[in-house]
Amino acid sequence: MRWIQKLSLTLRAVFRRREVEREMEAELAEHFESEVEDLIARGFAPADARQRAKATMGRLDLIREECRDSRGTARWEQFKQDVFFGVRVLLKNRTLSCIALATMALGIGSTTAVFSLIDGVFIRALPFPDPERLFYAEHVGMRGPFETLRSNSRQADYAAYLDVHAFTIPGRYWPERLKGSEVSANFFKVLNVRPLLGRAFVEGEDRPENLNVVILSEQFWQRQYSGRRDVLGQSLTLNEASYEIIGVMPARFWYPAPDANFWVPMRIDARKVGEYWGSGGLRAVARLRPGVTQQAASAELRAWIPRIRAMFPWPMPNDWGREAGLTELRDNLVGDAKPRSLLLFGVVGLVLLIAIVNVASLMIGHTAARHRELTLRASLGATPARLARQLLTEALVLAAAGGLLGTLLAFGQLTMLKNLLPPDTPRLADVAIDARILVFTAAISLGSGLLFGLLPAWRARTCRSLTAMEETRSTLSPTGTRTYGVLVMAEAAFAVVLLVGAGLLLRSLWNLLQVDPGFRVESVVTAELSPNQTVAASVEKTATLYEQVRAKLAAYPGVKNVAAMSLLPLTPEASFFTAAIEDHPLPPEEPQFPLWSTTVTPEHLDTLGIPLLQGRRFTAADRQGALPVVMISRSMARRFWSDRNPIGRRLRPLADTEWRMIVGVVDDVKNYSITGPPEWVEGEVYVPMAQALFPTDAISLIARLDGSPGSFEKRLPQMIKEVCADCALSKIVRMETVVAGATRTPRSTAGLVGGFALLAIGLAAAGIYGVVSHGVIRRTRELGVRLALGANRKSIAWLVMGSSLCYTLVGTVTGLFAAWALARWISTLLYGIAEHDPVSFLVAPIVLVTVAILASLLPICRAFRIDPAISLREA
Amino acid sequence: MSKPTALLQGTLYLLILKILELEPRTGWAISQRLRQMSNETLQVSHGSLYPALHKLEHEGLIRGEWKESHTGRPAKFYSITPAGRRQLRVEVADWTRLSAAINGIVEST
After folding, report:
1. Of A281, A375, A468, B104, which has the most beta carbons under 10 Å away?
2. CATH code, domain carrying B36
């Protein structure tokens, strides 16, 4: 009760100030009237009574002031005054305020934008109920192990999905390809997400007899069906089979990937032994049952691994499932975006620090210029604490304004950031500036305000004596120079760290761009061809279809070569088989050699200009029924047959009974990524398309042309339609685009870090410029005297920038040490250089010192132009 | 009477609470009562009463309420709160202890 009264009175005193004042006046007036009436009643004449009453009251203005004090809101009143005063000071010094505001807004805006990115990507919980109970089951991989876990686990509910892949749908002119996801029937139940419309899959819908149902994503529903509710019950044709639309998922649901347009049940059929135990690409998620810990569920999963291994219809290596376990679903989704986002956050953090340092030095300069004002206030009775509080409040006003402006800026910067980041950055759709982010922004704004406000406030202690008022602004006090020096030092250190980081990333990028992909890129057009299901299911029919397509395309004027591959180089999709290799026997319980496999047609070497180093290329004779053959890469030849001729040696894919003979060795090509295939791959193998290991639902066509491929690209769909009306053609792109796509992520990272480094060095230059030119202004008289006494230009220049240059150097060295220590955090993002790359560590300080000298040039010139006569008279 | 005011400052709160213990009063009535009860010994400047009243109100020890007074004009009536009564007991005890101690010293010499 008591505290309610206290609080309500305080709030009233703060927010209803006028009302409270009026009441106080009324109360005092009432007292006065009562007193007068009382005196009159006691026999005084009215005029006399008023006189006496006035005398007994005491001094009214003092009483009012004391009453106000007793409300306990004096601090607040002062704060309000300080805020108003702060705003007035900022408005008066417009140039200074604009610079400080812009600097703060840039720093706070960048930090906010990047923080919202980090928050959306890996701080914010996944948009499912109880996300902390959801885990990713590592290395489950296939339907058989998954189904075993799903039906036997007591600790967790398991669901599964296949990687998002394309399905053929009938289009307006020709069939089109659309990405969708295959999921187990309990997928939505385990994630605990309800559809927006209709129903989710029910148990048993992943059995082979009732597969034909589909759930649409909200985006696809809006785009294709304009959000009509009668979509339920309609049918959608996918891969020539008809599916009934039973539901629509809400917009926020994008799992397992943002480009999933629909979900269909995954076939889980133990009778299809090859698919059930042999086909990979399955990913499993687990939701812990109530009261179960991650450890317990993980232990249960691991306990099942040996039993599952024994269930396989063929012997599995001993280490299968060795790394199985439950890990956080969010971490699994984010993958390698984490180090890149954290790097970006560190970078904007440094930019913000530089901004703070800049504003701090501006504020100190500003406070020094107000020395007289502050001293006057001090001599009129303001305590040092009061002065400090006022300066701090001014800084906070500036910070708050900077924060507001920064928030506005952040919205723009975030849009920019989203465009600059690779579109496959996970959870990009979840990134948004919301209330939590704004709280963060407010916190860093106030924090920055405290940081750059405390220094001037601390220095205001010295504004004490009246004698200080008589002091003229002839020289810098030693403490003043030192404070500036420390600020310059900090700025240089932060900037050097950023420059080194940007240097390392840019040099890595340069190295990546210099990598020879191993094939000819110019004038090559690629497209993905998906035949109908009957053709796609048969290696032979696919080969026949391809032969027709090849003949058609080769007849087009300007086409030099046409070929097809199962997977283009530089495509980050896994394509490998495990094989036994002649001359390198391994015991059957050991893991065999994982080999990268690309299925190609005979002309693929000519089309891509890949040199044949040894043996022969594939011919039309390498077809089904003939001797199975393969070509291998140069590295593989060196790895397995360094001292022998590999031609004629053999290897056998584990899923196969037949050995395949090596007939040729070709030069290395960058498959998978610009840095080559994953490091666990032991070698790269090419298989003729007519002898493919397994059928594929899509092949990549490649055509090399004389001159510009523009008209060919346009004609391509029509030509394909003429040969094969039910073939879907997608991803018509030039090889240049494929190659550029391979370096998109490092380009965006290096670009962003480089951009922020540039911003940082700009801020640092502005800061150093400010400090040096402030020094010139403060020392005008001294410089004038020196010039009058005949000081030469060299000594004047040194006088002006010597100390700041020294501090810059000290800061640079400090920054280099810090960068040296920090470099290992980005070592995973580097390519072709050591984390302590000497070039980056050498160039960064040179750039910074050069910039520092350039920034000092203007103030130095101004110092040269000082007219001794004028400067002396003015002072 | 500048020195005694300092002594009075602390005890003024006690006196106000004591006066309000019986019934709610306006500021003016409190000042009258102060004068009467102390046989005109305590000359509290009327004005200095109000900061004390406002302070006590903000502390939640008394509560102010606007009501019509006997003059027919609205006036602010102060009444003691439960917290005020507790505080009064503490202050009275303190005061008794202090004055006994001071009396002891004064009378022994």
Report:
1. A375
2. 1.10.10.10
Q: A641 near A581, Cβ under 8 Å?
A: no
Mean pLDDT computed over A755-769: 89
- What is the dihedral angle through the alpha carbons of A146, A151, A157, A162, rounded to the nearest 10 degrees? 30
Looking at residue A477, its pLDDT comes to 54
Report how far residue A98's alpha carbon sits from residue A90's, in angstroms, rounded to the nearest whole number.
9
Is the pTM value of this prediction over 0.80? Answer: no
Structure token pair of residue A617: 């290329």
ipTM, 2 dp: 0.86
User: What amino acid is encoded at A89 in this protein?
Assistant: V
Taking only the tens place, the pLDDT of each residue in A601-612 is 999 999 999 999
CB A32 within 8 A of CB A53: yes
Determine which of A1, A3, A5, A11 to mutate to test the interface with B (most B C-beta atoms within 10 Å).
A5
Name the closest residue on chain A to residue B46, using Cα atoms.
A57
The two tokens of residue A425 are 């950055």
Which SS3 state, helix, strand or coil, does residue A570 take?
A: coil
Helix (H) or strand (E) holding A689: none
Highest-confidence segment of A53-62, A240-249, A791-800: A240-249
Nearest beta carbon to residue A2 from set B46, B71, B81: B81
Q: Which residue has the tokens 């299901």?
A: A533
Domain region containing B67: 2-108
At A562, which helix (H) or strand (E)? strand A559-565
CA distance B18 to A394: 46
Secondary structure (DSSP) of A60-72: HHHHHHHHHHHTT
Report how far residue A671's alpha carbon sits from residue A209's, in angstroms, rounded to the nearest whole number. 39
Residues in chain A closer than 8 A to B54 (CB atoms): 24, 67, 70-71
Q: Do B47 and A62 touch (CB under 8 A)?
A: yes
Distance of CA A524 to the CA centre of its chain: 33
Tokens of B102: 């001071």
Q: How many other β-carbons are positioned within 10 Å of the β-carbon of residue A823?
A: 20
B11 contact A CB<8A: no
- Looking at the predicted structure, is the pLDDT value of residue B6 above 50? no
Q: Which residues of A236-254 are buried (b: 16+ CB within 10 A; e: fewer)?
A: bebbeeebebbbbbeeebb
Neighbours of A285 (CB within 10 A): 26
Instruction: Quote the CA–CA distance of A215 and B41 in Å, as a whole number.
Output: 93
Which residue of chain B comes nearest to A37, CA vs CA?
Answer: B71
B41 φ/ψ angles, rounded to the nearest 5 degrees:
-75, -40
- Which range of A54-63, A629-638, A695-704, B5-14 scores highest in mean pLDDT? It is A629-638
Tally A–B CB contacts below 8 A: 87
Check pLDDT > 60 for residue B100.
Answer: yes
Eight-state DSSP code of residue A285: E
Across the interface, whether the CB atoms of A58 and B74 are under 8 A apart is answered no
* A30: closest CA of chain B, how far (Å): 7
User: Which run of H or E residues covers position A487?
Assistant: helix A478-514
Residue B1 binned pLDDT confidence (cut-offs 50, 70, 90): very low
Query: How far is the alpha carbon of A47 from chain B, nearest alpha carbon, in Å?
Result: 19
| Contact by Cβ (8 Å): A470, A384 | no
Which amino acid is it at A1?
Answer: M
| Count of domains forming chain B | 1
